[in-house]
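[job 4417] fold queue: 2 targets
>>> target A
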Amino acid sequence: MPRKPEIESDRLDDAARAGWLYYIAGNTQDEIARKLGVSRQTAQRLVSLAVSQKLIKVRLDHRIGRCIELSERLKDTYGLLMCEVAPADPSSNSDTLGVAEAAAAELERYLISQHPVIAAMGTGRMLRAMAEQISPMDCPQHKVISLVGNIAPDGSASLFDVVSRIGDRVKAPHYPMPLPVIANTVHEKNLLLDQKTLRNVIELAQQADVTFVGVGSVDDNAALLRDGFVRQDEIRALVRAGAVGEITGWAFNGEGQLIDGLTNDRVLSVPLEQPARKKVIGVVMVPARLRAARGALRGKLINGLITNEQMAELLLE
């Protein structure tokens, strides 16, 4: 009698084949049923399983007219080098749907180049979702650099480490920063950043051809607070100082100006340029981060944007 893992593996094989036949080869479900020797209902279930188990990744190649219009308006309004607006699903509760896929496609446009590229990465849930959408490649000519530490407050590896995930998927040399996001003291920060290996990573990041960052909020729901990098009293102090958002731990106000002192004195991430000289793409779609996204755009902390229709319309109000 076949063991359960073997049965499950065979079913995933069938689902992968059905998904390939449907999405890649363009077969109808009736044709898939005939080719696999199953009923039409089974073929339909196998295709659905392929999607739910992420055996198949679907991307939209045709840019919707409304999305094109919004991206052009955002570029004009904020002086952006690039802008990609993905369709929005009004009924979805996802914080990454559509935008993570669009960001992955943008990064892949750099990775397919035979010319060596340095890509710098922030961290967080959105960029982690983007990393999961990157197609496997063989890119030894490129370098993937972290802008921010990959150590959680308890000393464990961060759940949202992006650089290692991308480096593994595309077989590229990658350079993590074995640091917390924010040091306990200014003295500790100086000691940590004085390490030669870290200086090398920072120098590489500053040479990046393209940079991808998430845009976080500074409020009671801030990722920095939720993930334990800052305390509640530190968030409140930042809010009193006018902070509305953060990029790789660097807090800024509604006009995109970096906050003086407070946690910014202890941030270990690669310093932000203002205005950004090379391409720095912010990837954000959650309406709760509207003030943060608007501040980052106003302050020229980012000069590229990947978002969805809903956030684009809010940014243009």
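>>> target B
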Amino acid sequence: MSMNFTLKQLRYVEAAGRLGSIAKAAEELAISQSSVTAAIDALEHALEYDIFVRTPARGIKATPSGQEALRLIRGFIHQSRHFGAELQSLGQDATGLVRIACYGTAAPAFLPPILKSVTERFPNISMQVLEGDMAGIIEFLDQGRADLVFTYQVSLNAGHDFETLFHAPPYALISTDDPLSREPAVTYADLAERPMVMLDLPGTKEYFLGLFESRGLTANVSHSTRSAEIARALVAGGFGFTMLNILPPDYRRNDTRFRAMPIRDETQTQVFGIATLANTRQPKTVRSFIESCLELRDAGAFDDLIVGLDRAKSTRKSGNRAH
């Protein structure tokens, strides 16, 4: 069996599989549809099995063997993308592009100090940032569109490696007009008596509702939004409380209309950090980026993002690699 195909052809095949369409792949790559079709035909001929099932007017769909082939192709493209930069950086400072995917609601809180630190230490590293919900950013990683993702450990599987940055227990954001805001902490029973502004993102709503249900309580959801900023505005306006895990620094400094409060009877915590593909040697640029993040963690740079600093400090003492 001859395996005579090029990296360019593999990119064409990967794009077609990812987009489910030869036409869309051609548009993304700015090439002709016939070039994509020819690449698929050449690879299928070399492999001696079909990668895709093609249905007129309905695009293409990977066969079971094709799905495994696409996984291997994406891994190969992921490695090859950094090959030139890795060679160039030998004996020099890290050079190249790091593609970062972030959980959208958390990114504004923790990403600026990371980007600032990496830019100062490694001026030859450039960064591309992708945002999405937890499922979406893991898809970016699995498809090879991101080198690493910032997310919660709970969203990962055995195909990912994980570096802990901090533990982020849930907290309640409560209007200062509510007498409860003057207490040192709240309980889930306290919160169940009040209207809740729900951050309604995939996986997020179920997570917060489950915190009440596991205690035999029911959250009183009166408003829903997909925006953490709108949730904050509704809390400030007295429409109810909301719950989050990561505290943006300006919540603590610049607004007296609400207060971030720890939950007294909270027994679980979410672990936030950096996920990469397992069993994959990262290029020097990505390794340097991750090392900078871990140094920031050990210096306490993320402490202000957590409601309850005792947990942040324990993260720095024990915070190590998890898989």
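[job 4417] complete. Note on B: Residues 7-81 form a domain with the Arc Repressor Mutant, subunit A fold (CATH 1.10.10.10).
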